[in-house]
Amino acid sequence: MAPPAKAITSPVPDAWYPTLAVVMLAIGLVLTASFFIYEATSSKRNSSLAKELTTGGVASVFLGFGSLFLLLSAGVYV
């Protein structure tokens, strides 16, 4: 006989989805604004590829997870 199936549950409580969405989207938007300001104000001689990639990558991660939690809080289970 096979053991009974165990229900799959989220590691994050459902009540935290809206809060996580707002916080992560806010951080992502601040980092995106910082990235655009850096791009607009730095000259080609003073620009740093590492800073651009780091800021863009971290902003992308926060915006991605923020969008995920926004969808989850709206009831769209992806």
UniProtKB/TrEMBL annotation:
The chain crosses the membrane at residues 15-38, 58-77. Keywords: Membrane, Transmembrane, Transmembrane helix. It is a multi-pass membrane protein. It comes from the Eukaryota. GO terms for biological process: protein N-linked glycosylation. InterPro entries: TMEM258/Ost5. Belongs to the OST5 family. Subunit of the oligosaccharyl transferase (OST) complex that catalyzes the initial transfer of a defined glycan (Glc(3)Man(9)GlcNAc(2) in eukaryotes) from the lipid carrier dolichol-pyrophosphate to an asparagine residue within an Asn-X-Ser/Thr consensus motif in nascent polypeptide chains, the first step in protein N-glycosylation. N-glycosylation occurs cotranslationally and the complex associates with the Sec61 complex at the channel-forming translocon complex that mediates protein translocation across the endoplasmic reticulum (ER). All subunits are required for a maximal enzyme activity. This is Dolichyl-diphosphooligosaccharide-protein glycosyltransferase subunit OST5. It comes from Herrania umbratica. The lineage of its organism: Eukaryota, Viridiplantae, Streptophyta, Embryophyta, Tracheophyta. The gene is LOC110411241.
